[in-house]
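User: I'm putting together a teaching handout on how multi-component assemblies are represented. Below are the sequence lines for each component of a complex, exactly as they appear in our records. Could you produce the 3D structure of the whole assembly as C-alpha cells, so the students can see both representations side by side? Please keep the chain order the same as the input.
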Amino acid sequence: MHQSFRKLLRSFRAGALVSAGALLGLHAQADEDDTVKVGILHSLSGTMAISETSLRDVLLFAIDEINADGGVLGKQIEPIVVDGASDWPLFAEKAKQLLVQDEVAVTFGCWTSVSRKSVLPVFEEYDGLLFYPVQYEGEEQSPNIFYTAEAVNQQAIPAVDFLLEEGRDKFYLIGTDYVYPQTTNLVLLEYLLSKGIPLRNIGGGLRKDADGEVISAGTYTPFGHTDYQQIMADIKKFAASGDAAVINTINGDSNVAFFKEYAAAGLTAEEVPVVSFSLSEDEFRSLPAEDLVGQLGCWTYFMSLDTPENEEFVANFQDWLQTADVDGLERDGRVTCSPMVLSYDGVYLWKKAVEKAGSFDVDKVISALESGISFDGPGGTVTTQENHHLTKNVYIGETLPDGQFEVIESFDDVYGEPFLKGTFSEE
Amino acid sequence: MKSRVTITLITRVFLLVLFGLASDLRADEAQARQILVEAILSSGKEQTALVESLSSTAAPIVPDYLEFWKRGKIYLYQTDPDVDPIPVLEHEAETEGEASTYSRIVDGEIIVDEAGNPLVLDPEKMEMARPGRKTRRVFTMTVDLLALSTPDVSDRADAALKLGLKQDKDILPKLRELSSKETEPLVIEALEEGIAVSMLAHGSKEEQMESIQVLKDRNSIAGLDALKNLRHDINDGYAPYPLTEEEKAELDESIASIESYISVTDFVGTCFRGLSLGAVLLIVALGLAITFGLMGVINMAHGEMIAIGAYAAYISQQIFYTVFSQSTFALETYFLFAIPFSFIVAALCGLVLERTVIQFLYKRPLESLLATWGVSLILQQGFRLVFGAANRQVRSPSWLLGNVEIFDITFGFNRIFVIGFAILIVVGTWLLMSRTPFGLSIRAVMQDPQMAAAMGIRINRVRMMTFAFGSGLAGLAGVFLSQIGSVGSNLGQSYIVDSFMVVVAGGVGNIVGTVISALGIGVTDQALQPLLGPVMGRICVLIAIILFLQWKPGGLFPSKSRNLD
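Assistant: Of course. Below is the structure of the complete assembly, with chains in the same order as your input.
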C-alpha cells in the first residue's frame, strides 16, 4: 500500500517535471536523484558487431522491463550505451569514460576475451563492477568482474562427457588461433587424459616445448580462414577407425567454410559428430543451418527450451523489438541465445543484489552477489557464487534445419569453476 | 538425401515383389511395429532391451522409425486419461499454415475423423516421446546390425566395417556367419576387413597373425589404429598372446606398409588439393592479371568487384527462390544462371568505375591506387548499407556437394568443378586475347596506345571494354567464392592480397605466368600445411614469394610490354 502510494507520487512528480521541462523548452530530463546510471559496453560496429549488437538489445530490453516495474531501489535505470567498435584499446578507454565521467553503478559488456582483458585493469583501478556474459576460457577471477558466462566446466567438459558416454573415444581439436580456443583445448586435453583417453587418440597435433611439456593441442586457423581441405583430409584419416568426434572452437565466418568442406569431404554428423562452442542461435542466422543438421552445441540456454519462463521471455523480447526506439535496431528474424540470456540474467542479478545490499555502492553490491543471489531466468535458475561465477543448468542440443537446437541432454545446477587447468591428473 | 531414401525404398519394394516376399515382410513389419510401440511406451532397461531386439526383425521400416524417434517426430497421444497413450508419428505439412497429420505407429495408418479426413490432433493431448539416454546409445548399433541385411550394397558394406571396428566379441560370430553367405564383392571385402580388425582383439594367435596379413594386404587405414593398439599392448604386456620376435616384425611391417600407403594417398591428395587451391587463386587473380597486368591500373577495388560477383550470386539465388518458391529446382539451377549474371553485373560495375574514375588516371598509377582504394572503402560501406552487416548465405546446389573417393583419396565435386572452371576461363581468356580482333586491339592498345590510336583503334573504348572484362572475371571469382564461404562486405579484402601476390609472382602482364604462379602457390601452401599448420604454412609461402621476388624482381616471366616503371 505504502509502496504503491510512493510509486504513484513518484510518477506524478516525474510527469510534472517532464511537463514543466517541456513547458520551459528545456530537455525533458528526469531528476538526477531519481535515476541510476548503468553502462553498456559492446561493439556496435566492426567485426564483432554482428554478435554484440544483440547483447545491447537484450540489455536495453531488461532495463526497460525493470524500469516499467518501478526500477531499482525506487530509481529508474538510465542506460549509457558506448561503442567499443571491436577495438580492444578503445574498450579500455570507453570503460574509463563510463566509470570516471558517467560514474555508472555497474557495467554490462564485452564479448571477446581480449576486450575483457583490456578493461579488467580499468575496472580494478576505479573499483567498478562489470558483468561478463560470454562463454570463456577461465583462468581468471577479478574482484571487480562477475562472470555470468559459461566457464569451461559448464560447456566444454559436459560436452566431452556426453560424447564419451555416446562411446566416442577419439577427439580432434580445432579452433581459431587466439586465447579462448587454445586455453580451452589445453584444459580439455588434460581432462581427456584424466578420463583414460591416450594421447594418440587426440587429433589435430600437439606442440611441446623444450622440456617435452605440451604447450598447445589441436589445429588452429586464423580469423576468416576459408581453406579447410587439408584439415578435412586429416580429420577423415583420423576418424577412419571409427568413434571419433570433432571439438570445434572456430569463431565466426570460418565456420561456414569449415562445415561446407566437412560436407564435401563426405563426413556426416552420425559418423563424426562436431560439437561447436561458439555457435549459438544468433550465429546460425548467417550460417547454412541445413548443412549443420545433427551437429551438437552446448550452452546454458537454448531458444527452444520448453519452459514457461522461456516462452514468456522470448515473447516479451519479440514484442519489445517491435516497439522499442533504439537506433539501428533490427526487428525481424531475431532469435535469442545463451550470451543474450546470460546478459539478461546479469541485469536481474545486479538488481537483486542492490536490493539486498540496500545500496548502489559497488563494494556492498559485490559482497551481496558473493553471498549467493538466485534468479529464475529463461534458461533455469542461476545463482551467484563466491568465486564470481554462476551455478546454472547446462544443455546439450542437436541442430535442427531451422537453426534451432533440440535439447538432448541436460545437467542441472553445474557449479562454475574458473580454474581447471592442472586440476585433472592423468590416470 | 531425400532422393537417396526414395531410391533405396524403391529398390527394396522392387526386390521384395521380385522374390515374392511381400507377405513375409508384412508379418515382419507388424512384429517390428509391435516392438516399437512397446519400446516407446516403456523406459529404462526394458526400453533398451526392446530396441536391441529390433535388430533381429527384418523389417526395413525400423531404421527410419528409430531416426524419427530420435528426432522427436514421435508423440504420445493421450485420448483418454485412463487408457495408455497411443504412439503416433508426425508427418509435417509441406506448406506453411497447414496442420501436420499423424499416423499410428502400430499400423502406420493416418489417423482420420469420421468423414475420412486426416484428424487434427489436440496439441494439449500430445507429448513428445523421448528415448532414454542409454537407449539412444543402442540406436546406432541396432541400425548397423539391421543394415547388415539391407539390399543396399554400400550401406551393407559400411555397416559391416563399422561393426568390425567396434571389436565387439558378440558381433564377431554374426559377421562370420554373414561372410559365408555374402555374394557382393564389395561387402565381402568390408566383412573381411571388419572381421580381421575384430579378430585382432578376440581371435586365436593364428587368427591374429592372419588378420595382420589381411590388413596389410588391404592397406586398411581403418585397421591401422587396431594394429597400433596391439603393438602398444604388446609393449605394455597386455596382449592376449605373447608374440615371437618374428611375429612382432611382421606386425611392424604391416603397420609400416599401411603407413607408407597413407603417405602416398596423402601426397596425391595434397597435390589435388593444391591444384584446387591454385585454381581458386587463379580465378581470383585472372581479372587482376588483365586490369593490373595488361592495363597497368593498380585497382585496389578489385576485391570489391569479386564481392559484387558474390552478391550477384546471392541475388540470383534469391530471385530463383522468389520465382520458383524455395524448391529443389531453384536450388539446383540458380547457379547456372548466377555465373553469367555475376559476370555481367561485375563487368557493368567495372565499366562505370572505368568511366568515372580510372580513365582519368591511366598515366598516374599511384593516384589510381589511392582513388581505387577510396572506391573500395565506399563500396564496402555500400554493401553494408544494402545487404546489412550480417553475412549472406549462398547455398550450394547438390551437384557441387558430393564427392568421389578413389583409393582413399576424396575428390570433392566443388574442387573438381573449380579446376574445370579455371581451365575454361583461362582457355576462354586466351582465345579472346589471341584469336579475336578485339584481343588484337587490346594487345595493340596496351603495347603502344598512341600508335594504336593512329592506326584508327578507338583506344578509349578498348580500354573501357578491357577493364570491364577484367572486372567481369573478378565477378566470376565471386560466384565461386560464394560456394566456399559466406558472402560479406569484407569478402574482397581477404583475397586482394592473394591476387596481387599471384600476379606479381607470375610476372606482371603475363597470363601464363599468372597460371603457373597460382598453381605453384596453391600446391606449396597445401604441401606446407600438414607440416607447419595453416598459419605458419601461409607465412612461409609469403616469405618464399618475397625471397623469390628479390631474386627475380620481374616475377616468373618478366613482362616486356607496357611497363610500370
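A couple of points students might notice: The CA atoms of residues 50 and 219 of chain A lie 26 Å apart. Confidence is low (pLDDT under 50) at residues 14-31 of chain A.
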